[in-house]
Amino acid sequence: MGTVQRRRLPACAFTAGAVLAVAGCASLSPDPSAAASVATQLHQAVADGDGEAACALLAPAVIEELEDESAADCAVAVLEAEVPAPSDVLETHAYGRQAQVTTGRDVVFLTVSGARWVVTAAGCTPRPERPYDCTVSGG
Amino acid sequence: MSATTGGRGRVRTALRENGLTLFFGGIFLAALTGQAATGVAFYNGEQLGAGLEPVTFWRYVTSSSFAVDVAENWQSEYLQFLLYIVATVWLLQRGSPESKELDKPGRESDETQLVAEHSNDDSPAWARVRGWRLSVYSHSLSLVMGLLFALSWLVQSIAGVSAFNEVQLRDLQDPVTWSEYLTLPEFWNRTLQNWQSEFLAVASMVVLAIYLRERGSPESKPVGAAHDDTGMTG
Q: Which keywords annotate this record (chain A) (predicted)?
């Protein structure tokens, strides 16, 4: 496996007081390593041709966009969306309710849904000074 | 019965003698609660607009988004008072009750300041004897205000980069490091928009108090005081 670097700043809260107090530091997001796991599962599900499993990992807005664009069920559309094959996870960032997982072949973006991570974009490649170009996204 | 009456009297006295602190402490908590309530509504509006899940009130008030919004205002308030405390040692304004009298710029004499051999029985212990304690205590107000400013600004930067990066990831863009964030317009715009309002408020107070009055307020000159009377409060 490749190197997984996790950098994360906890979301901290202030408590009101007569003096400045930083207290109640708390994280809004699940374990960021779980985000890397979800990204890997998506790549693997698509590689296995298991569209149902892949769609179970997608955010609702992504499913809606896939189905609108292809006029097919998500389970079919996601397999045609040019999601790259599984690859080593190189880096993971998580801030608040969002995460970014960089693999050897693409970048995957995720958000918190309930107590788990779901994919908001996959198959992403960088563009200078612009958002990533993604083969799967919420539009 | 007399004990009850005495207890009520003590409470009434305590309320009267601490009214200023209690009033501002109370409206601070009310405003902070209001900020949290409206903040979560605004945050959830953005979440839903991006096709993402809303968060609970508790999740929001423990988020970096809420922390940065609070800290950016706190740091500017403490900076305002820090500068005001220190600048008014030397800088004067003719006619303003916010200024010292025109012949008293600077640190003033030990006699005026009631320190060391000029202290009295009611003077704080650290003010009575020369040495490092007197040196520290002589600047304790600005030191604490400065520390609170620095801490608030640090928290703003740490919570700010986390909140900024959360939006970056939501918009399918790369996050930045803390040191990169300190060079971004986002950080300095948050900072300077608060600073300018604080500096304007202080400048307005200094100048308006030359000509305008609020009867009975120690922030105002007596109503009948001349416009060029300086350092007078009533």
A: Signal
Q: CA of A9: which chain B residue's CA is closest?
A: B162
Q: Give SS3 for A119.
A: strand
- Count other C-beta atoms under 10 Å from residue A20's C-beta: 20
Rounded Cα distance, A62 and A96, in Å: 20
The tokens describing A17, both together, are 């007081």
Q: Are B84 and B99 in contact (CB under 8 A)?
A: no
Select from B148, B162, B175 the Cβ nearest to the Cβ of A100: B175
Give how far A100 is from chain B: nearest CA, Å.
7
pLDDT for the residue B232 = 76
- Each residue's pLDDT tens digit, B26-37: 999 999 999 999
- List, as ranges, residues 85-144 from B with C-beta within 8 Å of A: none
**One-letter amino acid identity for B64?**
S
Please tell me which residue of chain A has the smallest CA distance to B150. Answer: A20
pLDDT band with cut points at 50, 70 and 90 for residue A15: very low
- pLDDT of A24 reads 34
Tokens 């009533």 found at? B234
Q: Which domains occur in chain A, in start order?
A: 5-12+29-137 (3.10.450)
Q: How close B224 comes to chain A (CA, Å)?
A: 36
Q: Which two tokens stand for residue A136?
A: 């799967």
- Any chain A CB within 8 A of the CB of B62? yes
